[in-house]
């Protein structure tokens, strides 16, 4: 049995460098985990292809194709799925976008997987072998919040040289926060943890000294985090991950993190405007404390990739210069900017849709580098121009040198990160695909054939008066999903 597992390439990867290109990030876990979950079968062959690293094999011989889908790759994923199905190969779709918009995905798949796959994927493979593949597989979350039985990913099936951080893993899933732009609480409405012993065993299976946690919010449970990081101290690893700015409020946790080898963290600062932070349900960030956060983390030997979002409803044309000034003053080691993006399924998408402010339903544009909605206090063109200016100003060589040479803290990480973003900025300015936001009159603004309304019952979405007739609910599909 030959199984081909794919992550599609997409427009967001076109620049070949930058925050979305997986070769400059950690290796994805979804496909290596699926491979590990596949039951051992006679003559089983599993091939993993990440389209942002290697070409997708359009003529591959396979008995079954599985494709992991996020919103920005959805159009490409559907094209690939249609291609393989025309060749007579059954296709299974899964991932965040499929979980949020199952009705849309079913038009392009023989079967879809919703939510986590630990229990559904082995059952799906067995059903496929017996010729009774179901249309929908949906895993129920463990009621105790403990993720038992997560296997060690098949890292041997990826080309490790294609990634800056090939040795990725996760200890938790989900997040206890509900930021309005984030899909995580939609897909994982509960915070899940793997047993510490399982995580430690996973880490021990990685021969490299350097590892990366893919968790969205690794330190949401303080006691769990302390137990995990304490258990990691004897392993002598260097690691990085994601956290909220609140991590700086816990001295004991930071001490243990430092002893366990924490070298860098990605923090979502999002905005330097406290009103904006409250509006996006991230009021636990205190902009007046950002300087203290940076100082505290630097004192513990931790570099910071700081993320900021442009286009919040309180943002006007002054936000770009003010943010860049704050980023330089805060001494953020590797700054990263994004455009506010209303991903389907989120509270933000629901709100902007109800206000008639969504400009594009073309999922290719949902990459945090396009303006897909009408901003409140500026035009789409002004938002996009300011976004590019902020990147260009932040990564001028004089500012890069200021960040890199001010201390020897994780100097290699900081140097590589800053030079990578500097190249990204040059390509951002030269690539015409990213040059101008679309207007409402552009034909590419037409909604997808099966938009988010197809699954509104799953997430308590409300239909608007005058919704286009083409958004027709498939009752049989929803009945199957809900059963």
Concise synopsis of the structure shown:
The protein contains 17 helices and 14 strands.
List keywords for this structure.
alpha/beta, six-stranded parallel sheet, single chain, 483 residues, TIM Barrel, 17 helices, disordered C terminus
**Contiguous runs where pLDDT drops below 50 for at least 5 residues:** 432-440, 442-483
| Order of neighbouring strands in the sheet with most strands | 2-1-3-4-5-6
Q: Pairing-aware structural class of the strands and helices?
A: alpha/beta
- The whole-number mean of residue pLDDT values reads 86
* Percentage of residues in helical conformation: 25-40%
In whole angstroms, the N-to-C terminal distance is 30 Å
Secondary-structure arrangement, i.e. CATH architecture of the largest domain? Alpha-Beta Barrel
What is the general shape? Answer: globular
Description:
The protein has 483 residues and is an alpha/beta fold. The protein has 3 domains: 2-138, Rossmann fold (3-Layer(aba) Sandwich); 167-434, TIM Barrel (Alpha-Beta Barrel); 447-482, no CATH class. The chain is 34% helix and 14% strand. It has helices at 30-37, 74-86, 96-100, 102-106, 120-129, 184-187, 196-204, 222-232, 251-260, 274-279, 290-299, 319-330, 347-354, 380-394, 397-405, 411-430, 475-482, and strands spanning 2-7, 45-50, 64-68, 91-94, 111-114, 136-138, 168-169, 172-173, 192-193, 210-213, 238-243, 262-270, 303-310, 334-339. The protein has a 6-stranded parallel β-sheet, sandwiched between helices. Helix 7 (196-204) packs parallel to helix 8 (222-232), helix 8 (222-232) runs parallel beside helix 9 and helix 12 (319-330) runs parallel beside helix 14 (380-394). The radius of gyration is 22 Å and the shape is globular. Mean pLDDT is 86; it is low at 432-440 and 442-483.
